[in-house]
Design goal:
Blueprint lengths: L12 H9 L4 H33 L19 E6 L21 E4 L12 E9 L2 E9 L18 E7 L5 E6 L5 E3 L2 E3 L18 E3 L4 E6 L3 E9 L7 E11 L2 E8 L11 E4 L2 H10 L5 E7 L4 E6 L12 H6 L20 H7 L4 E5 L7 E10 L2 E11 L1 H50 L18 H51 L3 H36 L4 E4 H15 L5 E4 L6 E4 L1 H18 L6 E8 L2 E9 L31 H11 L3 E6 L5 E9 L2
Parallel strand pairs: 1-3, 1-14, 21-23
Antiparallel strand pairs: 2-3, 3-4, 4-11, 5-6, 5-12, 7-10, 8-9, 10-11, 12-13, 15-16, 15-19, 17-18, 18-19, 20-22, 23-24, 24-26, 25-26
Helix pairs in contact: 1-6, 2-6, 6-7, 7-8, 8-11, 10-11
Length: 705
Amino acid sequence: MKTGRAGRFGLTIRTRLLLLGLAVLSIPYVGLQYLQEMERFLQDSLEQSLLDAARATAAPLHNHPELFHRIYDNDQPAIFIHDIRHPMQIDGYVNDWSMYIDWSNHYARPKGASGDAAPVFFSTLMARHSGQVYLLLQVNDREVRYNTPDAGTGINGDYVSLVFEDQYGHVQTAYFSPEAPGAMFPFRLQEYHPDDPFFEFSESTLTRTYITNIHSAWQETEQGYVLEVRIPEYMLGDRLGVLVTDSFTRGGHAGQITIGSAGIMTATQPNVLLQQSTAIHAILRDNAELRGRRVWVLDSKGQVLAVSGELARPAGSESWNLFYEWLLPDVDARFHDDRAGQSRLDSDEVQQALAANSTVHWRSPNRQTAVVSAAVPVFNGNLIDGVVMMEETSHRIQLVQREAMSNLFNKTFLVFLVVTILLLAFATHLSLRLRKLRRQVDAAVDEHGRVTGTLAPMGGADEITELSEHYVDIVDRLRQYHDYLEGLSGKLSHELRTPMAVVQSSLDNLQHGAESYAEQQTCIERAQAGIRRLNMLVTRLSEAARLEQAIQSTEFESVNLDDLLDGCVQGYTAAYPDQRFVFTPGNTDSTARISPDLFVQMLDKLVGNAVEFSSGDRPIEITLSRKRKLLELSITNYGSSIPSGMEKQLFNSMTSMRKQKDDTPHLGLGLYIARLIAEFHGGTITAENLDTAEAVVFRITVPTG
């Protein structure tokens, strides 16, 4: 029973080809490395672009000190007025302030202040829109006390004082002291002491005057209360401060504690009001209005003089794919802007620019997005008036990466799919052809190794076709070998029967018929001749085996074949006087590493064979030539041709085409021994018929020494 060989191999050809196809997956890896290199290039380009844009924006600001003149000292507290996009509804609620609430300024209770009922802190936020200034005040108060009607013109509850300079530079104070939550008008109090912000109000010395063009609303919250105020912009000068007074009762005695946005000097020196410069804004609109970028202009103390543009930009259309969505973070257009609405910047790049060093800085407000900022100084001669800082997010780089990744993934997937299908089809085709070849071999050779059929070469021009042709040749040689083995017994029987018959008849004659001494001597001589012939047969049969054993112990030496062949030809001329020989030397370096004795023995076999088949009227031609690193020896004799199909069988053991001319046995071992010697020297031996005449040429190739 036949056993399959599939178990000997770990992987089939189809599996190996499919694994080879997986190499296409290296394309995304290489592409990813390319994208990372591209990201670094885009980052460098973005940095340089921002620096160039910042320098271009700063150019019209150089040597214009009037744009950067400020009226405040760095130690003076200031309140920044933010520009907003829509008006606020004055209702005492913070809902419409939600997107600006992070811009608030916070003020804590002074250390060491007495009174547990005092507010811990309050916060202010000022904004401007269409000629109106809005103030949001959030107060943390454990117990909110409202003014009672019996207070008259005085104040006996919690209240807020708004201290501001008017357009004429005069300090004005507006009081907000409601009797209940809701809308109200502030009022002024006459005859008060401006140098003492913590005075006790007395109804006999004060008169209320309501300010009807200032609108406000007071609402109570869980933490305290909210005061929302709207003031016409023309009423305000350059200063504004807030005083928050908390009224409380402790130990049966009433008291008040006041916290000011500018400390104890709030009533006389309120906070400086800061706002963006319209002149610088006009310059920015002309020079730095870019979508997706934001430009800041700061003075020498980091205060914001103007800001233009937005970092947020609408994300472009993106092709969606899970693979690169997983590789790259989301491009979130609604990212957290950590600097939105800030009135003062004190970052590293700003400090570097104020030190006359243009610099670029990267930061990550959130996990998805990075922001790059480039800051350059604004000069006034050799002095630095301020800083121009340009910012942009990494959204554009991420979008370029995402688009490139999408294209790379889609094209790689398409290529991988096509290559996989082609490899699968090709592997299936190869597998079918190999299986067909295996079935043909199984059908041609039975389980005992006997050739019972034939093979047909497969079509095509690839290795499988070559393999099938090789199998066809193997099967043909195997068939011929089996035919040779089957005919060997007949040939040996024929060669042995004759001398054995001679010996047997001679012995029979000696036993029964030979009476005289002469007859007996004749029978003995005939028996001895038969024995000699049997001995010669045994010697010839063991010659090949002895030669193989001798080859194993033979050593090579460098020999000039021209000289060796010339001496051999002279010997053949003497040995075969009736046969002419023509020798053509190589006329080049004909040195080879050979065993001279074995080589001459091979040459003797070939020449002897050529002499026996030669017609005698033309010489035997012996030619030596060089072909690259090989020496080729050809022996040509004219007289007869090799039968068709026997060219490759000539060098098999016990193959002979001689006609019996004498009693010398011919077992066909000469050319077999010649093949053994040629292969021992690392060469080849072939025989073929010449087309020009009835002639045969034997060619032996050996490596040069």
